[in-house]
Amino acid sequence: MNKYTVKDYKSSAKPIWCPGCGDYGVLNSLYKAFEQLQIPPHKAAVISGIGCSGRLSGYMNTYGFNGVHGRVLPVATGVKMANLENTVIAVGGDGDGFSIGGGHIMHAARKNIDITYIVMDNGIYGLTKGQASPTTPLGIPTKTTYYGNVGTTFNPIRTLIAYKASFVARIFSANIKHSVDIIAQAIEHKGFSFINALSPCVTFRGKDQYDYFRNKSMIIPDDYDPTDEVKAFDYANNEDTLELGIIYKQNRPTYDEVLDTVRIKAKKEGVPSKLGLLHDFEV
User: Fold this and answer.
1) DSSP-derived 3-state class of residue 121
2) Phi-psi region of 277 (alpha: psi -120 to 50; beta: other; left: phi over 0)
3) Cα torsion 202, 206, 211, 213: sign
């Protein structure tokens, strides 16, 4: 019998997203993934950005922090490095993560910070009432693109594979069972885990977006090898189908593990007498 159940991960705050919002599905999947992994609430932290998805940290009975626009990953990195035993989840939206926060993703990915980053992607700025975001499809009218969105739509899966994230996956918020499994695997993975969560905004994108996600999504076959980077890019480049599951995965040292090797080497060898080019300059 499980020591912790879903109710142990729920805070006293009641979610107030719009009826039909996909973020409810992501939140419930996160509850169930925590229960499945039996993560102690006092050994977990959920860090969020701004926007509708930023509310999620307040609905978790864990440590939490609601940061400023686009800065969820630096905060999550600090929380993880302060206590490596904690499970750290970063959550945000497509506007928060791919727009002003886009510069942080590459560094968290390449350094392989041992956190899980879930982006609730609805292709719109929801909380600020329907402006175009980096993942708004080309030609879609919004509050800021009245005659249709211009510019190529950002492809987060392709980008994160290129950034060398060691775990890249996609889920659909309406498929709870599958989402729970993928989130649990992402948390267990040692390194930077990125999950693109298709989370429809029925308020500003309408029911059509939900139908689009449902009809276009397909669970990746069981015999697929996620370590095949070429095949992973094939999936990412095929924008006619939204593959659900682990698209890319590799095992490599995490940031804290690499730092440990530096500490050991520095302790053993001491400070070098010459520091490369710096030695040639007088201060």
Assistant:
1) strand
2) alpha
3) negative
Alpha helices in 6-155 (DSSP H): 23-37, 72-82, 94-95, 102-111
Q: Do residues 61 and 6 touch, judged by C-beta distance below 8 A?
A: no
Alpha helices by DSSP H, listed for 118-254, are 156-162, 176-188, 206-216, 229-237
Give residue 276's pLDDT.
55
Contacts of range 5-11, beta carbons closer than 8 Å, 24 or more positions apart: 5/35, 6/31, 6/32, 6/34, 6/35, 8/35, 8/41, 8/61, 9/34, 9/35, 9/41, 9/60, 9/61, 9/62, 10/59, 10/60, 10/61, 11/58, 11/59, 11/60, 11/61
The fraction of the chain above a pLDDT of 90, given in percent, is 82
Query: Per-residue pLDDT for 26 more than 80?
Result: yes
Write out the two tokens for 81. 């490095």
Contact status, residue 114 vs residue 84, Cβ threshold 8 Å: yes
**What is the C-alpha to C-alpha distance for residues 185 and 180, in angstroms, rounded to an integer?**
9
Query: Which residues sit opposite 217 in a β-bridge?
Result: 242
Q: Are 116 and 84 in contact (CB under 8 A)?
A: no
d(CA 94, CA 51): 10
Residue 155: how many other CB atoms lie within 10 Å: 17
Q: pTM for this structure?
A: 0.93
Q: Which domains does the chain have, with CATH numbers?
A: 6-253 (3.40.50.970)
φ, ψ of residue 49 to 5 degrees: the values are: -95, -145
